[in-house]
């Protein structure tokens, strides 16, 4: 019966005879052979290829002992991300706009938020910069975890930005401008905060900033 319903010719071994195709078992409507062939040979859509950006030298992977866990995958959003987003408005923006000029700070933050909601790479860089700042202000081991998180988020931001440049348009100008500005500031901030490294290593980091900034 399964062979009849599947519209297939079946052969049987042993005793007995094959079921009579003219029996009273209702036959399903058959689709044209060309449609069946097309459906069976059409490959499934392949997932988009992501751009891999190597992490900066010295960065590590997440550890089970880290107090701050990173996202389990690229699309996951957790409470840590919300804290980073809030931290950007509360502590990072006043450093740029000046703590006394609150109107300028609000306008600065509004512009960044508006651009980030339509530019995923900018949102990732905002979170990366906040994590980098917390890595320098929090105590160990949270500081180490935030440093790892900052590297992961920045790598993702650069990857998304590289993909976006393949289809530039008027709607990406503002996001690109804010991203370039924030990424350059982020790299400069990381460079001048380095401690206990040789002059050659420091100059290499500064050269990396100049090439990006």
Features of this protein?
single chain, 213 residues, 8 helices, 57% helix
Structure report:
- It is a single chain.
- The protein has 213 residues and is an all-alpha fold.
- The chain has a domain at 79-175.
- Helices cover 57% and strands 0% of the residues.
- The chain is built from eight helices and no strands.
- The chain has helices at 2-5, 33-41, 79-97, 102-116, 120-137, 142-164, 173-192, 199-212.
- α5 packs parallel to α7.
- The N and C termini lie far apart (71 Å).
- Residues 21-26 and 31-74 have low confidence and may be disordered.
- One of its GO terms (molecular function) is DNA-binding transcription activator activity, RNA polymerase II-specific.
Strand and helix layout:
Layout: H1 2-5, H2 33-41, H3 79-97, H4 102-116, H5 120-137, H6 142-164, H7 173-192, H8 199-212
Helix pairs in contact: 3-4, 3-5, 4-5, 5-6, 5-7, 7-8
Structure summarized in a few sentences:
With 213 residues, the protein is mainly alpha-helical. The protein is 57% helix and 0% strand. It has a domain at 79-175.
Number of strands: 0
Report on the biggest sheet: none
- Radius of gyration, CA atoms, in whole angstroms: 28 Å
Give the helix level as a range of percent: 55-70%
Strand % is under 5%
The number of helical runs is 8
Q: What number is the mean pLDDT?
A: 72
User: Which structural class fits the helix and strand makeup?
Assistant: mainly alpha
Biased composition (Low complexity): 28-50
InterPro entries: Fun_TF (IPR021858), Sterol_Uptake_Regulator (IPR053157)
GO molecular function, one term: DNA-binding transcription activator activity, RNA polymerase II-specific
Keywords: Nucleus
């Amino acid at each position: 019966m399964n062979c009849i319903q599947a519209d297939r010719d079946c052969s049987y071994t042993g005793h007995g005879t094959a079921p009579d195709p003219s029996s009273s078992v209702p036959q399903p409507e058959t689709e044209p052979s060309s449609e069946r062939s097309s459906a069976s040979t059409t490959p499934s859509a392949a997932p988009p290829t992501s751009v891999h950006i190597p992490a900066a030298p010295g960065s590590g992977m997440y550890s089970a002992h880290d107090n701050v866990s990173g996202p389990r995958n690229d699309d996951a959003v957790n409470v840590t991300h919300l804290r980073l987003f809030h931290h950007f408005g509360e502590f990072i923006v006043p450093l740029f706009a000046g703590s006394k000029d609150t109107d300028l700070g609000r306008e600065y933050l509004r512009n960044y938020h508006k651009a980030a909601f339509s530019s995923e790479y900018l949102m990732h860089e905002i979170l990366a910069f906040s994590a980098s700042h917390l890595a320098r202000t929090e105590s160990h081991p949270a500081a180490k975890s935030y440093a790892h998180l900052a590297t992961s988020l920045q790598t993702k931001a650069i990857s998304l930005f590289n993909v976006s440049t393949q289809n530039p348009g008027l709607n990406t100008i503002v996001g690109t401008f804010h991203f370039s500005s924030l990424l350059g500031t982020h790299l400069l901030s990381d460079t001048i905060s380095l401690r206990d490294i040789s002059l050659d290593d420091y100059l290499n980091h500064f050269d990396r900033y100049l090439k990006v900034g």
